[in-house]
Specification:
By secondary structure, the protein is mostly helical. The protein is 83% helix and 0% strand. It contains three helices and no strands. The longest helix has 38 residues, at 63-100. It is elongated and about 65 Å long. Keywords: Membrane, Transmembrane, Transmembrane helix.
Length: 101
């Protein structure tokens, strides 16, 4: 159960960050690079939280938690990009066509 929570938290974190970055009026390259930097930052955050737990009484860091955090971060990013590509962009283009006619 613990691993499912880690997967869900980091997946949701990067999923929603992906949408926030997508809404910025930046070039495609800038948005992509920012999204990848955000995924990297989430992975580093997962590593730091697991490392810090070694210094807290009654807590212990777990390498497998870090692995699941990383899978969640990457998975949330990929899912976000798929939703943007297959749902959001087509809707935006459809609305743009409706408003221009």
């Amino acid at each position: 159960m613990d691993k499912v929570v880690h997967l869900g938290i980091f997946g949701a974190l990067t999923f929603f960050y992906t949408f926030g970055i997508f809404q910025q009026h930046w070039s495609h390259k800038s948005r992509r690079n920012t999204m990848l930097l955000m995924v990297f930052a989430c992975v580093v955050y997962g590593a730091i939280t697991e490392l810090i737990q070694h210094f807290i009484p009654y807590r212990s860091g777990d390498v497998y938690d870090f692995v699941v955090d990383t899978i969640g971060a990457v998975g949330g990013y990929v899912l976000g990009r798929l939703v943007i590509h297959f749902i959001v962009v087509p809707r935006l283009e459809r609305n743009k066509k409706k408003s221009s006619t």
